[in-house]
Structure formats: C-alpha cells, structure tokens
Amino acid sequence: xxxxxxxxRVRAHLPLRVSLPxxxxxxRFPAWMTLPAAVLALVAVLAFAAAIWLQVVHTIRHPxxxxxxxxxxxxxxxxxxxxxxxxxxxxxxLSARGVSYEAWARKHPAAKTILRGRTRHR
Length: 122
Hints:
A hairpin with a 2-residue loop joins β1 and β2 (82-84). The chain has helices at residues 2-11, 31-61, 87-96, 101-107, 109-117, and strands spanning 77-79, 82-84. The protein is mostly helical. Among the domains are: 34-64; 77-117, no CATH class.
C-alpha cells in the first residue's frame, strides 16, 4: 500500500513528505541572525581592504632602494631613439642627418667620454 502512495505522489509531482519539520526549512538561519552576520562580513571585508591599501600607501610614501652590489657600467649612448656603443656607428648616423660628429661631440662631452672610453673586446 505504501508503494502505491509513493507512486501516486511521484506521478502528481507532489512532495513525498507533507509536513515540514518544526524548525522551518533545514539549514536556514533565522532572520535576526543573518543581518548581523552580513554586516559583520561586510565590516571584515572593508577592514581587510583598508589594511591592504594602508600598506600600499606606506610603501609608496616610503620606498626602499633596491641594493645593487656594483653600479652598472654605462657603455652606450642613446641618440635618436637608438643606442650607439661605438663612435663609428654614431658618426654614420649623424652624417646621415647632416651633422658632423665633431659638432655633436662639442655639445655632448659626457657622451663623447663614454664612447671614447669604451675599449674593444675581442
């Protein structure tokens, strides 16, 4: 007889259990608990985000230099969006623009020193 009852309920798309448990739906919290829990979760997320941003602001305001064992040795000169490491290639690029290397060297003595000080490695 019980199997007939179950088969009828399934065919009619009705729930097998007619009455609900006395506490309401299982797994649900009462409304008076969900609002404080949601507020507490929101406050926790905001506090976490604020702590992260405070750390970011502190890092930006007080940067620490990266320690370098030896300073890098400059071996090239940037001119016209290109890097030149010897006088010959720079002289060719300047002559293509109608400028002599000597005139350029008078205006840029530090760059001239960098290019002239470079020794050739073979």
